[in-house]
Amino acid sequence: MTLRVGVIGTGTIGRDHIRRLTTVLSGAAVVAVADIDRDGAAAAAPPGAETFDTAEALIRSDKVDAAVICSWGPAHEEQLLAAIAAGKPVFCEKPLTTSEAAALKVMEAETAFGRRLVQVGFMRRFDADYRRLKAVIDAGELGAPLMFHSVHRNASVPAGLYTSDMPLNDTLVHDADVSRWLLTDEIAGVEVRLPRRSRQGGELRDPHLVLLHMRSGAIVDVEISVNIAYGYDIRGEVSCERGVAALPNRPATVVSDLRGIRQAIPEDWRQRFVEAYDQEFREWIAAASAGTATGPSTWDGYAATLVADAALRAVSSGNLEPVAMIRKPELYDVPAAKAA
Ligand code: NAD
Ligand code: ISE
Questions:
Q1: What are the E-state strand segments in the chain?
Q2: What's CA 131's distance to the chain center, in Å?
Q3: Residues 291 and 308 placed together within one structural domain of the fold
Q4: What is the DSSP string of 261-274?
Q5: pLDDT exceeding 90 applies to what percent of the chain?
Q6: Are residues 115 and 189 in the same domain?
Q7: What is the mean pLDDT of the chain?
Q8: Looking at the CA of 266, which ligand is closest?
Q9: Are residues 159 and 213 in the same domain?
Q10: Do the domain assignments include residue 84?
Q11: Are residues 305 and 292 in the same domain?
Q12: What is the domain-level CATH number for residue 9?
C-alpha cells in the first residue's frame, strides 16, 4: 500500500521533504500540497499532485491519508488540531508549537483521540552518529552521564526573518530534545549567558551559552552560534563517571593543494542531516501506514517548548528559570529503550 501524503508549507524544508518522499523513499507518494503562497505550492507540487487552497481542505480530503506540516511554527497548532480531528497521522516539523498553551491543546486532543498520531521533526534522534552515542551511554559501561557539551553552529540565518528570540525558540529546541533523549532525563531548569555579540548578524542577539539543568543533576552546556560563517557544525560530547563519549568528526574528502590540507564542512542542516531526515521519514511512513506515529512525540514537542520559554525568561531575568512539566499522559509512556 502506498501512503498518500499531503505536504503543508512548501518552503525550504517542505520542498526538501517532497524531494525525499518522491525520489528517495518508497512506500509514500505526495498527492497534495498547500501553502499560503499558492503559486509556490503549485511550483513545488510533484507531477499529478493537487494544490489545495488551505491546509484544512488538504487535511480533510479523502485523497490524503497523512499530512506533513512544514509551515512556520505559529501555524502548526491549528494544522495539528485539524489532522487529529480528522484522525490522520501527521509529521510536524519542529517546533511542535510556539507556546505552552498550544502544546497542551494538541496534547489534549491527541490523548482524547486515544492513539498517537503526531511525530515531531527532531531528526537528530534518527542520525546514526547520535544513535551510536546513545547506545554507548545506555550500555552503562562509562557510568552515569554527568555533563553533555553540545555545540550548534549555523553558518548564517536569514537576516530579518530570523529574530533574536529564535536562537532559543527555534534552534535550541534540537539541543534540548537531544539532551533529554541522550541522557534519558528531563530538563528542570535553564540558565542563559550572553557572550560578546558577534558582528556577523548585526543587531541579532548571537551567540548564546545555555545551561540546561537536568533532573538527575547532570548539566548540559549548549553553544548556539547562528552566524559563524564557516559552516554548519554540530558537536556533542558526554562526560560520564568513567569515560567520555563523543560524536565523531564527519568523514569528508581530504583535499591537499596550494592552500594546505582541508576537509569540507556541511553548509547547512540539509547536508549535515540528510541521512537522518531520510531515516526519520522511513520510520514515519511505516508508522503512518499503520495509522499511528512513533518517534518524537507531542510530549517531546511540549518539553522543548517549555525549555524555549524558560530560556527566553532567563535572558530577561539573568536567573536559573525552572521548567515545570505536567504529569506525563499514559499515551506517551513508552519505555525509554524503545523511544526513537
Ligand atoms: P520557509 O519560510 O522556507 O517555509 C515555510 C513555508 O510555510 C512558506 O512557504 C510559507 O508560505 C508557508 N506557510 C506559512 N504559514 C502557512 C500556513 N498557515 N499554511 C500553509 N503554509 C504556510 O521555512 P522553512 O525553513 O522551510 O521552515 C519550516 C518549518 O520547518 C519551521 O517550523 C522550521 O522550524 C522547521 N525546520 C526544521 C528544520 C530541521 O532541521 N528539522 C530545518 C529547517 C526548518
Ligand atoms: C532550523 O529551523 C533548524 O531546525 C536547523 O536544524 C537549525 O540548525 C537551525 O538553527 C534552525 O533555524
A1: 3-8, 28-34, 50-52, 66-69, 90-92, 118-120, 145-153, 187-193, 208-214, 219-225, 233-240, 243-246, 254-257, 260-263, 321-322
A2: 15
A3: no
A4: EEE---SSHHHHTH
A5: 97
A6: no
A7: 97
A8: 2
A9: yes
A10: yes
A11: no
A12: 3.40.50.720
Looking at the fold, whether 171 and 147 belong to one and the same domain comes out as yes
pLDDT tens string 303-325:
999 999 999 999 999 999 999 99
Per-residue pLDDT at 337 exceeds 60: no
**Alpha carbon nearest to ligand 2 atom 10, residue:** 171
Q: How many domains does the chain have?
A: 2
Candidates 157, 232, 235, 269: which one to mutate for ligand 2, based on the most atoms within 8 Å of Cβ? 269
Span from the CA of 277 to the centroid of ligand 2 (angstroms): 13
pLDDT at 27: 98
Is it the case that residue 334 has pLDDT exceeding 80?
A: no
Mean pLDDT of 226-240: 98
State how far the Cα of 51 lies from the Cα of 121, in Å rounded to an integer.
23
Using the atom order of ligand 2, give the atom closest to the CA of residue 93: 4
ipTM above 0.85 for this complex: yes
Task: Ligand 1: list residues with CB < 6 Å.
Answer: 8-14, 34-37, 40, 55, 70-73, 75, 93-94, 121, 123, 170, 269
| The predicted structure's pLDDT at residue 67 | 99
Tell me how far the alpha carbon of residue 137 lies from the centroid of ligand 1, in angstroms.
34
Within-domain flag for 339: no
Q: Pocket of ligand 1, candidates 8, 35, 56: which has the most ligand atoms within 8 Å of its Cβ, to mutate?
A: 35
By the 8 A CB rule, do 224 and 234 touch? no
143 and 214, same domain (yes or no): yes
Q: How far is the CA of 150 from the centre of ligand 1 (A)?
A: 25
Residue range 230-242: average pLDDT? Answer: 98
Q: What is the DSSP letter of 23?
A: I
Q: Which residues constitute the domain of residue 318?
A: 128-271+301-323
Are both 150 and 34 inside the same structural domain? no
Question: From atom 12 of ligand 2, which residue's Cα is the shortest distance away?
Answer: 171
Please tell me whether residue 47 adopts helix, strand or coil conformation. Answer: coil
